[in-house]
Write a structure and sequence with these properties.
Elements (H helix, E strand, L loop, with lengths): L13 H11 L6 H12 L5 H13 L3 E3 L9 E3 L1 H26 L6
Antiparallel strand pairs: 1-2
Length: 111
């Protein structure tokens, strides 16, 4: 995280949190829509318990917020802080991926 920006701690669910925030970057979604979207773009299934625990933590950290709904579903949206945190995390992941790929390119023959 860059200096001056609020850090968020996600513990062992960091990957799940990044997937959830990435999904919400595309627009408001409720739990089932989030799970389906993540499965579609990442090929990862998020179990309901893991999803709702992460959503609760993200809401407490003000990275997402609930949206009013006319039915029993509870949609969420990304906050400005959530977008900043997601941007920081994705840029850090890109740096790591680029380094790893560069190092693999030197001496490893990957079929």
């Amino acid at each position: 995280m860059t200096a001056g920006k609020k850090s968020a701690s996600f513990g062992h669910n960091e990957g799940t949190v990044t997937l959830i925030l990435s999904s919400l970057a595309g627009g408001e979604k409720h739990g089932y829509s989030l799970v389906k979207d993540v499965e579609e773009f990442a090929g990862v299934h998020i179990a309901p318990g893991t999803l709702y625990e992460a959503l609760s933590r993200l809401e407490k950290q003000k990275l997402i917020e609930p949206v009013e709904s006319d039915d029993r579903r509870r949609p969420y949206r990304l906050t400005a802080l959530g977008a900043t945190v997601l941007d920081d995390r994705l840029r850090a992941q890109r740096r790591v991926a680029n380094i790893g790929l560069k190092r693999l390119g030197r001496g490893w023959s990957i079929a």
